[in-house]
Specification:
Layout lengths: L1 H19 L11 E2 L6 E3 L2 E6 L7 E5 L16 E8 L8 E6 L2 E2 L1 E6 L2 E7 L5 E4 L9 E9 L8 H5 L5 E2 L3 E6 L4 E10 L6 E9 L3 E9 L5 E4 L3 E3 L2 E9 L13 E9 L2 E9 L4 E4 L2 E4 L2 E3 L3 E3 L13 H13 L4 E3 L7 H10 L2 E3 L15 H10 L9 E3 L20 E3 L2 E2 L3
Helix pairs in contact: 1-5, 3-4
Length: about 425
Amino acid sequence: MKMKKHLILSMLLLGFAGMLEAENVQRTLPDVVEGVRDEVISLNGEWQFQYAPGEKWERVTVPGELAMQGYGIEHDKPVLYKKTVLVPADYRGKQVILRFDGVYSYARLWVNGKQAAEHAGGFTRWETDITSLIRIGKKNEIRLEVTDRLNDISYASGYAHHPIGGILRGVSLYALPESNMRDFFVETLLDDAYQDADLRIVYSMSASAKVSFTLKEKKSGRVCLESGVLACQQGDNEHRFRISRPELWDAEHPNLYVLQVNVQSADGGYSFEREIGFRKIEVKGDRMLVNGKQVKLRGACRHDIHPTLGRTSTPELDSLDAVLFKRANMNFVRTSHYPPTESFLKYCDREGIYVECETAVWILTVRRIMLPERVRMIRKLLPSIWVSWKRWSLLPVLMLPCFSGRSVTNPFMERTSSCRMTG
């Protein structure tokens, strides 16, 4: 029976893989873009909302559950959001990206009356290049149609016992030079003595450019690496740097480093930072080892919960949760039953909390088929494992207990990794 389920899932994944390949791109939010004052613009806050065609437009808060704002969302019945956005004049000549961190569960996007994209899946980040659809220096209208699908494979409205449809996570608009990084991936590879490490950096470039990397200790600011200027080509690139005796990360010693990335090209330059940690995860027999030392997990499950906005969260609440978990002597969190926000993972990295990061897949039945966006989510988020230890469980209902003596209880559905990439 298990082999039959594995075979069905394998065929579904392979069948949708090619369809989604072009969409499987993760860009990294910039910290600085040359010539641009506001490189990232938050679109959170007040949006216009229409419950049904012909009805008047109301005001709602984004992100936030519509049901918690007085609207009885129905399964398979679309509702409509809209917002007017002024695109800054200094975005001219840049690639302009509209990003949604989570919309439940099926969304169709229009920009200035032209359809730009569609996406299914409520807890995965998705974004669209809208450069050709916008008017630089003028106001632009964004419309988003959202449908809470009854047969969504995450079943999030099912176990919430009410339709949760809506924009549940943040929305932002940002600019990048035409030559920019995609699928940025960092891996720390410790040697067998847990003393020295290779820092592996992998990414794809939309066009050729020059890059440089600087690694600093977060606490002291001590520089551990200065790569100098490196030429990179369009397409896939990889670099490895030897780091001597880095301070290691674990739940009791959450030592972090800051990796500064700078990209320069004829289109202009930009930069961003990533916090990383050096650690090695191993499972030997019935023991889990972090940096060669046995670790026992003490923790609980966690949902995105806002006191007034429902199945959503904010960076402030994410931070508070991580702090309170640590104060409660927890060192482990399971993100039931979907991937958490990137800000929650960031605070777990800082506080020192291991995270089992679940995919948004619930019960696989004849009625709930494997949707293409789930393949897209797996491709995006499997590498999204940072200095916290995050174990992927695609179908928790098919799993044995998380730590039953095997590192991987379901070899097809799970993977243990030791690095993180956040686009």
